[in-house]
Amino acid sequence: MQDKVLKVLEFTKVREQLLEHAASSLGKEKIANLVPSTDFDEVVKLQAETDEGATVYRIKGNIPLSGIYDIRPHIKRSIIGGVLSPHELMQISSTIYASRQMKRFIEEIDEERTEIPILKEQVDQIIPLTNLEHVIKQAIDESGEVLDGASELLRTLRHQLRSNEARVREKLESMIRSSSAQKMLSDAIITIRNDRFVIPVKQEYRGHYGGIIHDQSSSGQTLFIEPQVIVQLNNQLQDIRVKEQLEIERILTELSAKVAEFANELQIIVKILANLDFIFAKARYGKKIKATMPIINNEGRIALYQARHPFIPLDEVVANDILLGEDYTTIVITGPNTGGKTVTLKTLGLCSLMAQAGLQVPAQDGSELAVFGAVYADIGDEQSIEQSLSTFSSHMVNIVDILNRVDDNSLVLFDELGAGTDPQEGAALAISILDEVYRIGARVVATTHYPELKAYGYNREGVLNASVEFDVETLSPTYKLLLGVPGRSNAFEISQRLGLNERIINNARSYISEDTNQIDNMIASLEESKHQAEIEQQEALDFLRQAEKLHKDLQKQMIEFYEKKDSMFEKAAAKAAEIVDEAKKEAEQVIRDLRKMRTEKHAEIKEHELIDAKKRLEKAVPEMTKSAKLTNKKSKKQQYLPGDEVRVLTFDQRGTLVEKVSADEWQVQMGILKMKVKEKDMEYLGSTEKKQETRPMAIVKGSDSHVKLELDLRGERYEDALLKVEKYIDDALLASYPRVSIIHGKGTGALRQGVQEYLRNHRAVKKIRFGEAGEGGTGVTVVEFK
Length: 786
Fold this sequence. Notes:
Layout: H1 3-8, H2 11-19, H3 25-32, H4 40-60, H5 72-79, H6 86-111, H7 117-124, H8 130-139, H9 152-177, H10 181-184, E1 191-193, E2 196-202, E3 212-216, E4 222-226, H11 228-261, H12 263-288, E5 295-297, E6 302-307, E7 320-324, E8 330-334, H13 341-356, E9 368-370, E10 374-378, H14 391-405, E11 410-414, H15 423-440, E12 443-448, H16 456-459, E13 463-471, E14 476-483, H17 491-497, H18 502-510, H19 514-601, H20 607-619, H21 626-633, E15 644-648, E16 653-662, E17 665-670, E18 673-678, E19 682-687, H22 688-694, E20 710-712, H23 718-734, E21 739-743, H24 750-760, E22 765-770, E23 780-785
Parallel strand pairs: 5-9, 8-12, 8-13, 10-11, 11-12, 20-21
Antiparallel strand pairs: 1-2, 2-4, 3-4, 6-7, 13-14, 15-16, 15-19, 16-17, 17-18, 21-23, 22-23
């Protein structure tokens, strides 16, 4: 993509905003170099990784990205034998720790069965350099200072250093506290010059303390003297400091060599952490602008739903649908200058660039964008003072460059095409340029205020007119994009609202051709019709959502009832079996007692009488339920086929088999409901085909005096109404009615949709329609039978 296009469409500002969400210089570097990709597979992968980052950010909220540094220069210096500073080693240790934290963080989310394969693949490449991290931390603290415990020798040297410093201070303290010192010292303090302890002595007493003069004040009245008595002690301190520095150098050299050993692993850690910081920065930015992941295609198709410009505040921006590349490849937006046409162009162009850069776009879920080989834009005043070019000339230079480069995999955006010159010539040029780009096969969106281009979309296939809505009442644009409706001039209406004399306006209208007036009237009518259609579409969608919710709730309740009924039946069967067992045991006990009595008391009880008594006891067992009998009745395995009619015993409802879903389960259509039913809970009624063949021989014509020609369902509950419809249709068929009416009312539309869904699936219904104006309109459904 050309840098000029990135600047014109303000992609550079997107990068600036994105930088605020990076946690490290590594992520910021990747963002600074971010440009849209033209490779389809790469764009799909970039979008997928951003979506995974957004998923993690939504689940966890806080990402462990602190403590990451750009350690690449340190690694390079260690490889060539350089000695790293304590601060540089601390940064390496901190970065290793951050990589371990991130690896653990992603792996924990993956274990929770959240699908993040790209992020998991990234952290799998991280090799935890725990030993190197610990070695560095044992030697260097977080502020970049070498610790005493870095080596035994360093610990000893620092102990000696502190002891000697204490002795030097003690001697100097005794000197400055003496009574004579008050007049000889400029101030009773101990200070350091050239790494040696000194005291501030007045000029005139310079010989009193002897020793070495290290410095003097700006006025020359104070000399900083190292007294003779502590020169030897200071020399010892210096000697220890030299040894300490040599030991520190040795420790740093050793640690730098260890870093060099793991140079490759550290380079991988840096690369992965940079990628992860970049991914999560994109995710955070997407959350800020309320963006979603677009569907990416390679066919030049754009479908942005409720797209917004990311730089306009959410409480001010107007969202628009922008569709291009399916039925038409060119959109011409006409209308007055102050209508938001340029914002629409920039929104489309910027969303395309953002998507190809792997960023989510400020639009609704389900939006779709294409991967273009190039995006070209001629927007704004590119007039060049240095070249002494007019506005028209400067635009034309840009357009010529676009025409030389454009191909069938390009998106081209023209703002005010042909402006800046004679209107007739400008309009003719605009039409010719659009024709050329359309011929090449590029996707084009152009804005213009030339009325001649209003007819352009009507005369050419694949071109759509559009405009930005203008509210004449408030005298301001609404910024709402109207696809399929060309813009019209509102000059007369605005002038009238502002108080211009009616006579002047009428006189002005007389100068406008009849064709222009007809076009403007047509456009006004189109705008009104489109607005009304959008309202009705929204109402229809609301009704559909309500109906779907009601259908799902009903289906859920039916399934719950079915499951509960099964459970209760099983419990009842178990209880019945338990009662039967108890009864049998009791019977056996009675028989045993009788036999015992006969044996012991020689009672006159015959054996056959005992057997009869036992049979009578067995007959006392409770009878099976009706449903159990039916189940046993069809114990012979029935071979079911799709289309067979059955009775679902658990609901006592007729249904049709749709498909077999398991070894003993079928999906059954019962009216508008589909549900899984086990074969043991079904009774075979016959095949649909057989029934249809034999139907003429089985028609029973009964008296129709008790069956009305219409069924009134108003006020009925949804489930009761459907049951009444089923019975009524059966009665009407028996009465041989050719046509009946079902009154369901308008309401929310849920009952109407349920009734019509049932009728469409009924085998005896030929067709259905709404009632005519005199029959009740959409509140009545007329049913014709086969």
